[in-house]
Specification:
This is NCS1 family nucleobase:cation symporter-1. It is a multi-pass membrane protein. Pfam families: Transp_cyt_pur. Keywords: Membrane, Transmembrane, Transmembrane helix. The longest helix has 34 residues. It is globular, with a radius of gyration of 23 Å. The chain is mainly α. The chain has a single domain, classed as Hydantoin permease (Orthogonal Bundle).
């Protein structure tokens, strides 16, 4: 293969005037244009920019998302007291810390995004199964989260300019005129950020992280003061004994399931990490430490509200809506918008962008794929999906149940079978003798391990009689898939370990 100096390949995520489809098809000798472009290429180790702080700010944003607060407050509503909520989140945090390190190390070593990482276990073409499943779930949630953020923006606009209220009447394809204005405005903001690549996402996350932490802490202090500096540590339906521990363990398991998407494609971010140490340090402060802070804020918010009037809030946005001062309400609402955009970018925009780039590497670079992802997220009219329980529970829930089995196969293949040995250049060749060609580009053993595990995960998630196991469906799916693959994987293969520096591109992350 030629060295990187022999062929001019633009930096990852860069978009100069001569980049785009033409540069996307400029591949190095030995690589296939169906598998390689400058966004899918491995990143050079020299010049990687994601530090421990960069990784910490990912979690500083995502952990404090409105959806996570709704989940944690739900544990309080189910009858868990303050320390029990913290215990449930602590169980989930410890498990996540371990899983995210395993996933993150893969990205740091190879420098490749998730769709390419999937080729190791599923084959150069079979990897489309994993990337499309992950990307499909993310595109739908990108649209839904943008819609939910637009609701906050709509309320904020009316609070600041009451004359806009008439625009919030009527319906055009399910949204009022003001609803459309708010949605499209936030949609454009996110498209602009992502169009500048992963480096801009890194900068936005670093900017948003401190804002979110300060805002949530301020809300907690304000509510604590409103409650007379006392909170209720539990509701009148406080659980105890075995039932309490089932809820604690179930809450911890669901906490891991919520991050089932991230533990799968964390390598999209850590492929630009400076070192394994940066990953561990960023995850340590961002997961167990940050999640304990998140849990404390949750307990104060829910406990203070219950102390005041015996009611349980559903989200911090309920508290923000009740702020009597318009200026403070506007500031808090703006912070929630900053938060929602940050969460959406990292959780729901990067994955489908790489998935589409992987599907059409000769035609789509990162920017073009991001725009296509965003357009799909718009044309599906996500507010109608959100308001349709069948779609949310069965379609998106069903796809989500498949993420555990995918994780199980990929982790078992990488850590247990190969023991971390990866031939990175072979991930980009269609040579029939290539390490990841398998059978016409598909590892049928990985698919065979995936299918029964996916069936079990979906059954546990949806069959009422198995409802008691539902919180643990991710673990059942991941565990069964890993065990299946352990027994049927081909151990006679030679596992070569080769870095991708020869075909790598400068990281613009």
């Amino acid at each position: 293969m030629n060295s990187i100096q022999d062929t001019a390949v633009p930096p990852l995520g860069s978009h100069s005037a001569d980049s785009g489809a033409s540069s996307a098809t400029a591949t190095l000798a030995g690589t296939s244009p169906r598998l390689y472009n400058h966004d899918l290429a491995p990143t050079q180790r020299e010049g990687r920019k994601w530090s421990a702080y960069s990784i910490f700010t990912l979690w500083a944003n995502d952990v404090h998302s409105l959806g996570n607060y709704a989940f944690a407050i739900g544990l309080f509503a189910l009858g868990l007291g303050g320390w029990q909520v913290l215990a449930a989140l602590g169980v989930g945090a410890v498990l996540l810390f371990a899983l995210l390190n395993l996933s993150g190390f893969m990205g740091q070593k190879t420098g490749v995004p998730f769709p390419v990482m999937s080729r190791i276990a599923f084959g150069i073409h079979g990897a489309q199964i994993a990337s499309v499943l992950r990307g499909g779930v993310a595109i739908a949630w990108f649209g839904i989260q943008t819609y939910l953020a637009s609701v906050v923006l709509r309320v904020l606009l009316i609070a600041l300019a009451p004359g806009l209220a008439p625009l919030d009447q009527g319906s055009i394809l399910g949204l009022s005129p003001l609803g459309w204005i708010a949605f499209v405005a936030l949609w454009i903001v996110q498209v602009v950020i992502v169009s500048y690549g992963m480096e801009m996402i890194r900068k936005y996350e670093a900017f948003a992280g401190p804002i979110i932490l300060v805002t949530m802490l301020a809300l907690a202090v304000w509510m604590f003061a409103q409650a007379g500096f006392e909170i209720a540590w539990s509701t009148d339906k406080s659980l105890s004994g075995g039932e309490m521990w089932v809820q604690i363990l179930g809450g911890g398991a669901l906490w891991v399931s919520i991050y089932g998407t991230f533990v799968l494609n964390f390598c999209d971010f850590t492929r630009a990490a400076k070192s394994k140490g940066a990953i561990v340090k960023g995850n340590f402060w961002g997961i167990p430490i940050n999640m304990l802070l998140f849990g404390a804020i949750t307990v104060v918010l829910a406990g203070a509200q219950f102390k005041i009037n015996g009611q349980i809030i559903t989200s911090p946005s309920d508290i923000v809506a009740g702020i009597p001062n318009t200026f403070l309400l506007a500031g808090a609402s703006a912070a929630l918008l900053v938060l929602t955009i940050a969460v959406n970018l990292m959780a729901n925009f990067v994955a489908p962008t790489y998935a589409l780039t992987n599907l059409f590497p000769r035609h789509l670079d990162f920017r073009k794929a991001a725009i296509v992802s965003a357009v799909i997220g718009l044309v599906i009219l996500p507010w109608n999906l959100y308001n349709n329980p069948v779609v949310i529970v069965y379609f998106l829930g069903g796809l989500g149940a498949l993420l555990g089995p995918l994780f199980g196969v990929i982790m078992a293949d990488y850590w247990l079978i190969r023991r971390g040995r990866v031939n990175v250049p072979a991930l980009y060749t269609e040579d029939a003798a290539g390490d990841y060609h398998y059978v016409k580009g598909v590892n049928l053993r990985a698919v065979a391990a995936l299918v029964p595990a996916a069936a079990v995960a979906i059954a546990i998630a949806f069959i009422p009689v198995l409802g008691a196991l539902a919180p643990f469906s991710w673990f059942f799916g991941a565990g069964i898939a890993a065990v299946n693959y352990w027994f049927i994987a081909d151990r006679k293969r030679t596992f070569t370990d080769a870095d991708g520096e020869e075909i790598a591109v400068p990281s613009a992350h």
